Amino acid sequence: MSQTVKGRQASSKEAPLLIMAPHTSSIDPLAGAMVGLPGAVSMMDNAKIPLLGAIFRANQSIFVERGDPDSRNKAAAKIKMRAEAKGAWPQLIVLPEGFCSNGKSLLPFKTGAFLPGVSVQPITVKYNNRRLDVTSWVDTGPGLISMWSLLLCTPITRIEVMLHPVYHPSDEEKENPELFAKNVRDLMSRYLELPTTELTYRNLKAIVQQNKPRVTFLNLWWSIISKGCVDIPSREALS
């Protein structure tokens, strides 16, 4: 696995929050490790994963239950407390899209990391596999075991992490976290040369429930052997 980090990482006093996008893969924590393995804002389910959960707990990550408003509010309060500590806490890395996509566009940024109104450092991540995307982990694609099998069979996976200049919010952005989040997302979309989309997690889940194909492990490997790439078949093709 080839790893490249470009740019200068700000100190926790300069930018207590690191904003990483796009969120596409279960190996995004590896990209986080490339910038010092800061604590992260992560789903509660990740705390239960052997070894990975221990790492998250060791670096004092903040866990949130996606479907629980009270959990989200408590996580936002913890983010605010750390962000306003003026360097007393280590940096916290946030993936504000909130869930994995295929990385073809930037999803709406959740406002939790922007509520404190402090300076943030944008971080962009690129996986440069020319022939085959074996890193994107989405509901319409292969499951985690299949994806990791494909990843381990890929000779070289290139990860490029780019640390961009610290973004200092305006007075208006400090008062309006939705505007702050939107402006940071727009800036990162220009860095990545990607469009933005307004589809939310709920929108995408509804689409997936209607259109998700029944992809089996054998289907996936036959696609690799015969075509050299992952071909996600339609429901009709698998019926």
Cα-atom radius of gyration: 18 Å
Spans of 5+ residues with little confidence (pLDDT < 50)? 227-239
Largest sheet: 7 strands, mixed
Tell me the β content. Answer: 5-15%
How many runs of DSSP E, i.e. beta strands?
Answer: 7
Helix content: 25-40%
Element string (H = helix, E = strand): EEHEHEHEEHEHHHHH
Distance between the termini: 37 Å
Number of helices: 9
Mean pLDDT: 81
So what's the overall shape? Answer: globular
Largest sheet, order of strands side by side? 1-7-6-2-5-3-4
Q: What is the subunit organization of this protein? A: single chain
Structural class category? alpha/beta
Give your account of this protein's structure.
Helix content is 35%, strand content 15%. The chain is α/β, with parallel strands linked by helices and 239 residues long. A seven-stranded mixed β-sheet has the order 1-7-6-2-5-3-4. The longest helix has 16 residues, at 177-192. It is globular. Mean pLDDT is 81; it is low at 227-239.
